[in-house]
Amino acid sequence: MEQKKKKRIVIISIILTLIVLLFFITKAIIKNKLEQYLSNLPEQIELKYEDLSIGLLSGDVVFDGFKVNLKGQTTGQSNGFVQSKKMSLKGFSYWDYMVNKTINVSSIIANQPEVTYYHNPLASTSKGSQAMFDDIKQKITVDDFKIKNAKIEVFDLEKDSVLLKTENLNFSLSDFIFNGKQTSNTKTPFQFKNVTLKIIDLEYQVNSFETLSFNELIFDNNTTAISDLKLKTKLSKENLSNQLQTERDHFDLHIPKIKIENQDFDFKGAKLLAFSSKNMTISDLNLTIFRDKLVADDLTNKAMYSKMLRDLDIQLDLKAIQIINGSITYQEKVKKDTQAGTLDFKNFNAKLTNVSNTYHNSQTTINIDCIFMENTPLQVNWSFNVNNLQDHFTFKADIGNLKAEALNQFMTPNLNLKLEGDLKQTLFTIDGNAVTSNVDLKTKYNQFDIIILKENGNEKNKLLSGIINLFVSKDSKGQSDNFRKSDTKQVTRDNTKSVFNFIWKNTQSGLISAMAGDGTKEN
Length: 523
Known about the structure:
Blueprint: H1 2-38, E1 45-48, E2 51-55, E3 60-71, E4 78-90, H2 94-100, E5 103-111, E6 114-119, H3 125-135, E7 140-156, E8 161-178, E9 190-191, E10 194-205, E11 210-219, E12 224-233, H4 237-243, E13 250-261, E14 264-268, E15 271-277, E16 279-283, E17 286-292, H5 305-310, E18 315-333, E19 341-356, E20 364-372, E21 376-384, E22 393-399, E23 402-403, H6 408-415, E24 417-432, E25 436-452, H7 462-470, E26 483-485, E27 491-492, H8 499-515, E28 520-522
Parallel strand pairs: 5-7, 6-7, 15-18, 16-18, 17-18
Antiparallel strand pairs: 1-3, 2-3, 3-4, 4-5, 4-6, 7-8, 8-9, 8-10, 10-11, 11-12, 12-13, 13-16, 13-17, 14-15, 18-19, 19-20, 20-21, 21-22, 22-24, 23-24, 24-25, 25-26, 25-27, 26-28
């Protein structure tokens, strides 16, 4: 009996020893297999770590001193690093990895990783990313992927400067599936269900002149919310002008709140193919634009907005954009020793519909309701069809009672003249294309005078003022409901000027025609 007990104990001990040995052998095999896989990643990815520990029963894999070196596809040189003190994989299925040659993970968590990327403007990011996808053959599934409190810096390799920076990025992704290959029928080799992104205090160098920043961005599958967005020219107005070869606007834009709803993206690899949204709201926009006309003109061709949309590299479909309670100031400096002239648009509310290049027949419309200068109501209805190759458009405006003196802050420093009188109401319709237009304008006004100033900008040039007012009707001659109507035949666009210059050129032609005597009285 005693002998049987001893045999049982020996057998149990042997079995336990074999189980323990099998456990460690299996763990060693799995660790070895995992290390082999990690050492045979695509050539653009070089992964290093100080230690790798695995939990055979739990399926946990923990990297200590985790660091990834990303290399350029063509140059083979390092262009980015991802490093973290600890990278954790939980619920790693060893069975699927060993038997089915797939990678299944319950969760991946990266705490406080630091990401550094060197952007080369001459390299194709999308091609490099696609090549990296093509080199991964295994199917990969991750139930939950999280990045917590990441620090990210992107450097401009060409200029050796910081391109983008944030010290607080949080990202999560659920139900991620990578199929391990991409067929010609699939636009992306991966899919997922839910994604969230939160970034605090981001700065981005848009180009050599402007910087974009925001206080917070929150993004999920359906909505993007941005707070305290700013787009500013880095240099002062004077320093910018000193650096320019041809004119360029000086920007100061602040938007406290932007919300994009019902959004959708379409990618092919890392390349964005399409973006759509049912509604975008821009609240309390404040924009100041300054242009120094003393700098040489930029004589490149300026496209109409319909052509800009038509020629985009992506399919864009923004069904509605609303601007609520905005403020826009345009400043233009024409003379060296005078202040810039100013045009103000307050209480600026606008609704843009069908801002898209995906429709065949739908019109893009822009409806604006604002206060021009001090207290003049202004309503605008602007429409065009993106697919019209002649870039046909219709621009309608209704300008309420305008004290002519309110325009003097723009007219006097820029044109060396002053206006007096009341423009009680001005209505016009511009029907045009990318080359020419016709303007139908009528205006009702009273006691209108144009005062030409002497060179000093202070005294009236009586001779020139008298001559010019010989050609301008003093008022619209009639009862309160009478208008003088323009007789403008055709206006030709200068395609080296902006779209707004074309609108102004039509308005100017219509007003001159109506006021200078060739206009007709309408009862």
